[in-house]
Amino acid sequence: MISLDNDKEILTIELGEAEQSRDDLVVCVVDLNETITNLQREKEVLNEKITSIENERDDLMVVVVDLKETIEVLSNEKHTLEETIAAIEQERDEFLVIITDLEETTERLNREHRTVSLGKGKEVASETHIKLEKELTDVKTSLYGELEKNRQL
User: What's the whole-number average pLDDT of the chain?
Assistant: First the structure.
């Protein structure tokens, strides 16, 4: 009986140890299930963050592309304006040369005219004065005639 009692005790101890192991395993399985559930939630949150960040990245890419296109357009416009400015400055310089030449020519002609017309100036002025006086007399005569007609009416 001792052996049976001894076996029974050993089996009881082993059974207790097996139940304890089983309980430990159940606790471990429950902990693992909670860990898996928590990890799945964290995965969902991380996936949502990734989606949000990818959307922001896509939006930023659109902005970057638009800005690059704007920079290119403005750069082209700047180049065109610089060419226009250079052409206008060239034209201005050409006009300044022409103006200088014309001023010199005008001065030269004025000097030549003064020397030539000093003698003729009085003659031309007298003739012009006589013509103006004659025209003034004609206008006065015509005006008197009109006034006389108006009085008679």
Answer: 83
